[in-house]
């Protein structure tokens, strides 16, 4: 006796594959579980389980007979949809990383790097710390729910094998990319301004007291002041991230509308 779900999958194999490839590309490129820190088996099981759930809740339309070429192009389109959607959330965390890198350079941590298993690259100490804080904030404000809602919305707005690259899509992606610098500047500006004033003050002392070793004196001052300002500006950091995460509810529909035929 065949299980009804398995029977439904066998009758709609193409639709199941389209859902599987879109979900797989979306989750594989996400910063939360896309890194090497999450075991591959966990990722595979998550993709398969979400595909089974979406396959049952979505209104599956009967697929016309597909050739090998049309099936390949359709699956490629599903992968591009998932990657473009995950790109939006990756831009947000890239902005956090950029602002944190600037803070680390200003504090003198330019050569003190750690391996980040999430992004699979070397990042500064401050970028690693604020990246972890950003992940916690993202989960605390239910950002993962926004991702799941947007993934379900993508199947409502863009049918299977319905990806359509367009000029407005590229323009919208460039607009989102430009916000990386704005968000990074918002995150780093308190520390940048405080350390700039500290360096000016140290320079004045160096002119007044030539015997003072500016190099040995400046490092502990900038590091201590930088860490203090990072701690004091944490509420502002939380507010900026919360606002940007909430904005994703409009960013994802904007992306999906520009990928429709």
Q: Could you explain how this protein is built, in words?
A:
The protein is mainly alpha-helical and 261 residues long. The protein has one domain. Helix content is 76%, strand content 3%. The protein has nine helices and two strands; from the N terminus they run H-H-H-H-E-E-H-H-H-H-H. It has helices at 4-11, 13-28, 40-57, 68-107, 125-140, 143-157, 167-208, 214-232, 234-257, and strands at 113-116, 121-124. Strand 1 and strand 2 (121-124) form a beta hairpin. It is elongated, with a radius of gyration of 23 Å.
Chain-wise SSE layout:
Elements: H1 4-11, H2 13-28, H3 40-57, H4 68-107, E1 113-116, E2 121-124, H5 125-140, H6 143-157, H7 167-208, H8 214-232, H9 234-257
Antiparallel strand pairs: 1-2
Helix pairs in contact: 2-3, 2-4, 4-5, 4-7, 4-9, 6-9, 7-8, 7-9
Number of strands: 2
Number of separate structural domains: 1
How many DSSP H or I helices? 9
Instruction: Characterize the overall form.
Output: elongated
**Rg calculated over all Cα atoms:** 23 Å
**Helicity range:** over 70%
Q: Report the order of strands and helices.
A: HHHHEEHHHHH
Poorly predicted ranges: none
Compact description:
The chain has 261 residues and is mostly helical. It has helices spanning 4-11, 13-28, 40-57, 68-107, 125-140, 143-157, 167-208, 214-232, 234-257; strands at residues 113-116, 121-124.
């Amino acid at each position: 006796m065949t299980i009804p779900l398995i029977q439904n999958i066998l009758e709609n194999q193409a639709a199941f594959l389209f859902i599987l490839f879109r979900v797989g590309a979306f989750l594989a490129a996400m910063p939360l579980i896309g890194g090497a820190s999450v075991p591959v088996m966990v990722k595979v099981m998550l993709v398969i389980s979400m595909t089974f759930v979406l396959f049952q809740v979505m209104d599956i339309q009967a697929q016309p007979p597909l050739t090998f070429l049309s099936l390949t192009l359709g699956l490629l389109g599903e992968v591009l949809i998932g990657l473009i959607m995950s790109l939006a959330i990756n831009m947000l965390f890239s902005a956090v990383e950029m602002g944190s890198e600037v803070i680390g350079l200003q504090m003198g941590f330019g050569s003190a790097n750690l391996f980040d298993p999430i992004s699979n690259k070397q990042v500064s100490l401050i970028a690693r710390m604020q990246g972890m804080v950003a992940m916690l904030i993202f989960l605390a404000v239910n950002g993962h729910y926004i991702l799941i809602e947007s993934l379900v919305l993508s199947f409502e707005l863009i049918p299977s094998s319905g990806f359509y690259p367009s000029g407005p899509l590229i323009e919208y992606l460039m607009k989102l990319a430009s916000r990386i610098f704005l968000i990074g500047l918002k995150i780093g500006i308190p520390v940048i301004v405080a350390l700039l004033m500290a360096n000016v003050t140290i320079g004045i002392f160096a002119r007044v007291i030539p015997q003072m070793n500016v190099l040995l004196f400046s490092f502990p001052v900038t590091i201590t002041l930088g860490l203090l300002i990072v701690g004091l500006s944490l509420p502002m950091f939380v507010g900026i991230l919360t606002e940007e995460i909430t904005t994703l509810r409009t960013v994802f529909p904007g992306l999906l509308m520009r990928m429709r035929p």
